[in-house]
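Dear colleagues,

As part of the handover before I leave the project, I'm documenting each prediction I ran so the next person doesn't have to rerun anything. This entry is a single chain, and its sequence is reproduced below.
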Amino acid sequence: MENTNRASYNAALSLPTRKFIEMPHSTEILNELGYILGRANAGEPTGLVISGVTGTGKSSILSHFKASWDADLEKGECSPIALIKTPSKPSDKMLLENELTALGDPSPRSGDLSSKRDRRDALIKTTNIKVLIYDDFQHIVEHRGEKVARQLLDELKNLSEQFGISLVFAGVNTVEQVGVINEQIDSRFSSLKRVRVMSIENDNEFYYFQSFIKSMAITKGITDVDLTKDNYIYRFYYAIKGDLRILNNLINKALYIFKLSKNTKLQLNHFETAFNDINSKTWENENDKRVNPFDPKKLSTVKKQLGIKA
């Protein structure tokens, strides 16, 4: 008897890994990250706020920046960039532990707050860190309150001045409040970058999203179906509404279903099943008229709800 669990495992394991797709809007942000790193090395550290709605690729841009820089390091050379994940419940203890983890501390949970701060500062100095990137920094703004956020920003400002470090705060749109909460942080930062949200609201936006889909199909090794046809673009946009993580999950699941099928090429019905799988939650509003965009019978409904004229 065939081991279906093993077949499922093998199909999932063989899926192509997610690759960073550089688009003009991400290149602009990567260039700005390069600028603040350069200014830190020149002795004039600055800062950057990166904001955008969930799923627009902020974390991917940050990870790509660090990975691409680290790839050029000499053997044994320390990265000048620390990418820190802000905890969803950002107590002082948890944030310090995440900072220590990003800086390579072998025991980030050991010690009291004072010793943790001392180790963090020592690691910054000995590893010659030049950029501290705080991803999901909106958690500080949203959950700690203005007074605590101001105190933390003052502490980070002092770190920047003491060690010549540029700072990056990234997150959903509320992260932009850091400049309001702490005016000195605002005056030190070089710019605010808002990550573009994919849409199809006009021809330029449609073609931009279409070019992204084309690049993603290439990275996923999809050659037997043209995902850039207009009807596919409408379906994809309806399914994800700009959330690129959903797009990645959707395509992965469709490829997985295809690999388990007896079909010889990727088909629309694979996406239809995948959409049902990743969108299994019940709509909160029972009167919601949304449909499965990959159901061939629902394309006219999809276009109508998107405002596409027949």
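The CA atoms of residues 114 and 120 lie 10 Å apart. The mean pLDDT is 91.

All the best with the project,
I.
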